Amino acid sequence: MAWLLLFLCVLLAVTARQAEGFRVARRVRDLRDERAALEARRAELERRIRAGASRQVLVPKVERTLGLHEPADTEFVLFTVPHSGQGTP
User: Fold this and answer.
1) Domain definitions of the chain by residue range
2) Secondary structure of residue 73 in the 3-state scheme
3) Residue 86 pLDDT more than 70?
4) The predicted structure's pLDDT at residue 89
5) Where are the alpha helices (DSSP H) in the chain?
6) Is 51 within 8 Å of 57 (Cβ atoms)?
7) CB atoms near residue 37 (< 10 Å)
């Protein structure tokens, strides 16, 4: 009778371990699926950031909201800094 009881206990332990293994495997699969979905979301957000930061989007928005414009070549002024000799304050 003791052997039968020991066999049943071992059988229950093995079954419990297998069931827990299946639960863990299912959780790992679910987490991998969630990770893949999050990586796809991240890629989409990065694409939207690149598109939103492009000149084609920013220039019209800045012109409309801030009243700025892209300067023409004649609007550029280059300043030269006079070179001071060494030792003179």
Assistant:
1) 13-66
2) helix
3) no
4) 54
5) 2-52, 55-66
6) yes
7) 10
